[in-house]
Amino acid sequence: MKKLLPLIAFLIGYACFGQFNELAPWMQDFNNRSSISEIKFDDIVDAFNSYWETRDPHVKGSGFKPFKRWEAFWQNFVDEDGYLPTSAEIWAGWEEKQAMANTRNPLADESNWVSLGPTDFANRDFSTANIGRVNVVIKDPGNANTLYAGAPSGGIWKSTDAGQTWTPLSDELPQIGVSGIAIDKNDSNIIYIATGDDANSDSYAVGVFKSTDGGSSWSQTGLNPSNSPSDMNDIYIDPNDSNKLWVATNNGVYRTTDAGTTWTNTLAGINVKDIKIKPGDINTIYAVSSSSFYKSSNGGVSFFPTGSGLPASSGRLVIDVTPANPSVVYAISATTSWGYGGLYKSTDSGVTFTESANNVNIFESTQAWYDLALAVSDTNEEEVYVGVLNIWKSLNGGDTFSQVNSWFQHTASFTHADIHFLRFYDNELYAGTDGGFYKSSNGGVTFTDLTEGMEISQFYRIDVSEQTSSKIAGGTQDNGGFGYSSGWNNYHGGDGMEGVIDPNNDNLYYGFMQFGQNLFVSSDSGQSGSQAYGGPSGGNWITPLAINNESEVYAGYTSLYRFTGSGFQQVSASLGGSIDVLEIDPINPDFVYAAVNNRLYRSTDRGVNFTQIQNFNNFITAIEVNNNNSNVVYVVLRGLNGDVLRSNDSGTNFSDISGSLPSIAKLTLKHRPDDPLNTLYMGTSVGIYRYDDNLNDWEVFENNLPNSPVRDLAINVVDEVIVAGTYGRGIWISPLQSTQLASDDVKLVSINNPVSNNFACGDITPQIQVKNNGQNIINQIDVTYNIDGGADNNFTWNGSLNSEQTAFIDLPTITLDKGEHDLDVSVTIANDTFTTNNDGSKSFFVNDTGVAQLVNTFETPEEELITYNDGSTGILFERGVPNGAALNTAVSGTQVYGTNLDNNYPNNTKAYLFSQCYNLSNIVGPVLKFHMAFEIEFDWDLAYVEYTTNGGQSWSLLGTANDPNWYNSSRFAGDGIANDCYNCVGGQWTGTNTTMTEYSYDLSPISTEAEVIFRIVFHSDQAIVEEGIIVDDFYVDGTLSTEEFSLGQIGVFPNPSSGIFNLRTSNIGSYDYTVTDITGKVVLRNNNVQQQDHQLDMNGFASGMYFLNLVSDGRVLTKKLIIK
Asked: What are residue 1104's DSSP bridge partners?
């Protein structure tokens, strides 16, 4: 165990637990104790759990979630005795890191980190999520276009164009949160920030920092890590004397008269949550604690209690003033249970207050200890705004209120929920929330989101595709799950937690919300939302989620569970507590490791049975299995001095490889695959470190990376990059450190054809990409492949492949039946060093060819279509006889396709019915036609049609509700019309029409496309089910030539036949013909037929449906042939 460097002198009574908001109800007992220094982290957690034993944590705005976010982060810092570090101890670790960096070779760090966002996302206008929390917004008093914003762990940001673009100013400072900003009116280059996160302690306070160059650089003031209170918020500069400042802290109001060199404390021992300066009178300053109002008449030299008429007891007070009437002070009170306690107004500069007449619960919650904001218009003293869960407005001094914003639907008045900051600048209202900040220029009628461009997302966990670094999944604090696929989308809500990407199908994203309550599954890289599947109980706030190399998804609750595609199945017995960390061996998926507190478990049978193999001296924060050797396992322990350990015998024995790591929290660990040096990358509370077998120690790996906590890392060896998920500065990406190549190694880079989950309209010619991952030239590569786990096929590539070069290898063409298939490929060479990079697989579909005018009646097995469900092994669409109470009619014959033919459809389902492949370029006047009847929950569940022209790589909505004989709804998700239609896409069927009705769509806009597939999409939400939809007689109408044969020119008889068909023609001259089966494969061909009577001999062909395609003088005819 390493020892801390000598600590900065530091002693305030509540420092050891100052990282959490002292106003929280479960903290009240601690605030009254005389011996605060004896409080352990678990004491706070136990008090929280005890408080919530008799309360409902699921109520919106209850205050439950803010604490769980705090607990999940700060538990990584707890030492082996159970105590949290002080701010000074954390800062000392940062200084230790700096001192070490000055002794290292800077050329050893080859990283080059660049920001990847999110700073915006595609479905922003339909989502209630946003980029991240904003604590404070300040407008430059000398420049109305310059704004500054402070984030809880993302630092201070600056905009010089009124919020259109943003620049970070504090990336070189460690783990900086900002809760207060002050700009010198006399010199805008002088900026002060009050550090830390006043609302929820997502970061720690280390005093007041100062910049004299507009934020390009920062220096400590006299209020610094050696003497700073653990929490601070508002900070102000005297507009007439730039040397004078005041800052509110949880240990009084600090005042400086020498521009921050020295500070004096007034109201010592008082937790001051808000201060305001009387407009036009710099000597009059107001301050409030949780329940008392104070006033200074001498510029903050001293304060005295006043405020007659205010409640005798409050849980929290917040105040505001207005230049519209400098004598007016408003105070909003939260009760001791943190509900609405009244709005009070003073017209005599805070001497007396009168309560307003309002009796509406404008808080709508009991978490005012976490977020509570108040603003008075700067032009109208009667115009008052209050924010907790939402923003409420009064035009009569608070006697009556109306809600102005909306957090649950994306209307023009949308803001994210949980309001931390409200303030007027130049008659415009600014609001800081848990999801960004907003501006209203019309009294709250509409709000403009100004967060775009700020990269302040607080990521819990991330993952990157094994095939490409352009696909990333991750979960963010209070803003849901984000998916990246050459652009960002928000694909689920809540607190987004662990996100994983299927290693064999990187369109398939899985994302947890808090406690593993729901697993969200997206089949298109998060681009069009997700399906939700309820999880078991017993999960942590961050419930671990893992996927093995065979695409099996596992989750750690009190037991290990496996996701079956439609729900969770218990795998193991209880491990005696919620699983904190879950790791699956990347080589052998039978080996699974789990951590519960300080206990390490191992399973050798895919989690059915676990054995405890270690009991460490502190909790486990990370487990990593070596990608090249299953025997090598790494474990990271929590605390500033937490160890990094390595085992060479699958966890039986461990050795310490912590080396000279500074005293900082170690949050995550990743091993680089295919690396002879076994490089490790460590994410910490202040950056990233690298370790390899040559170094045998740790070096920084963080060029251009902000000094933000890195909570997760992911590596993509195809692109040779590493991705970092930070807690406050979003996602970052860097090239990997260069490493030594093995002597001989071949790598399967990708399977390029077929494409995952795409459609082939005919035969498949597989293509793979390989790379020489070694030093020596490769002259021969042996390829083994199979379809659907069948017999292996062998192929040998010969050539010359130089070191680090790639080659494309085409395998022999394969003919397959219609349906879903799997291709498995393995490559190898002589003396191959790494076998872990040799294998790959792809799932794909093979489709058959559709013929114009040929109606799919669904009466025979040959007319079956391909069906699929998002994220589920079950299939919703089925062919058969409809037997529903409302949906029970076929058009042709007795059979249809339907969503459960004799019962209601399930909740949370997105199902697809795919057509055949159509060559529209050979069809004149193509029109899609089908019959459908439906009973769907109106405006909640829906059906629509999409099409693809590229085998399913992308899909587009077919048509709109304005098209004739098509959709009955044009609603969009989040269109503000009503609080529903969350799955609506802008054109769909919803509601009820139980009569079989023919729908048609003119395909002229895509009539030049040669491979078109349609799909009917059915999407249900999480509640209320009905019978769904049934479909019959699906086809593309049109003709196969520009000139038709006249009636009677061609006849075929008998049809159906046992094998002999007679073909009779009249006045058409010679002709060619082919006969194809239902897959489009030509089974019979004849050219230049001269006879008017011709016999087609198909004896010996399997019974079923075939198609005769006859061509003569540019005219084409297709007829269906049936062999009995």
From this structure: 1123
Backbone angles phi, psi at 1056, to 5 degrees: -70, 160
Per-residue pLDDT of 164-223, as tens digits, reads 999 999 999 987 899 999 999 999 999 999 999 999 988 889 999 999 999 999 999 999
Helix (H, G, I), strand (E, B) or coil at 27: helix
Beta bridge partners, 345, equal 330, 354
Cβ–Cβ < 8 Å for 491, 524: no
Token pair 């010089």: residue: 160
**Dihedral over Cα of 189, 194, 200, 201: its sign:** positive
Question: What are 798's strand-pairing partners?
Answer: 780
Q: Fill in the DSSP letter of residue 107.
A: G
Contact 523, 489 (CB under 8 A): no
Paired tokens of 101? 């960096």
Please tell me which residue, 350 or 54, carries the higher pLDDT value: 350
DSSP 738: P
Query: What confidence tens digit (pLDDT) does each residue in 766-817 have?
Result: 999 999 999 999 999 999 999 999 999 999 999 999 999 999 999 999 999 9
Domains in the chain and their CATH numbers?
Answer: 15-103 (no CATH), 273-438 (2.130.10.10), 459-735 (2.130.10.10), 746-845 (2.60.40.10), 861-1039 (2.60.120.260), 1050-1123 (2.60.40.3080)
Q: Percent of the chain, pLDDT > 90?
A: 76
Note the pTM of the prediction, 2 decimals. Answer: 0.86
Q: Please check the confidence at residue 1114 and state whether its pLDDT lies above 70.
A: no
Query: What is the Cβ-side half-sphere exposure of residue 374, based on CA atoms within 13 angstroms?
Result: 26
CA 354 to chain centre: 47
The encoded tokens of residue 442 equal 């019309």
Q: Taking a C-beta distance cutoff of 8 angstroms, is the pair 970, 960 a contact?
A: yes
pLDDT (tens digit per residue) in 696-725 = 999 999 999 999 999 999 999 999 999 999
Longest Cα pair distance anywhere in the chain, in angstroms? 115
Q: Which of 117, 133, 20, 128 is nearest to 72 (CA)?
A: 20
Within 10 Å of residue 388's Cβ, how many Cβ atoms?
Answer: 28
Q: Please give the order of strands across the beta sheet that includes 264-266.
A: 232-238, 241-249, 252-256, 264-266
Residue from 606, 866, 627 nearest 759 by CA: 866
The strand pairing partners of 722, in sequence order, are 715, 734
CA proximity to 811, closest of 754, 755, 758: 754
Quote the Cα angle for 823-829-834, to 5°.
80
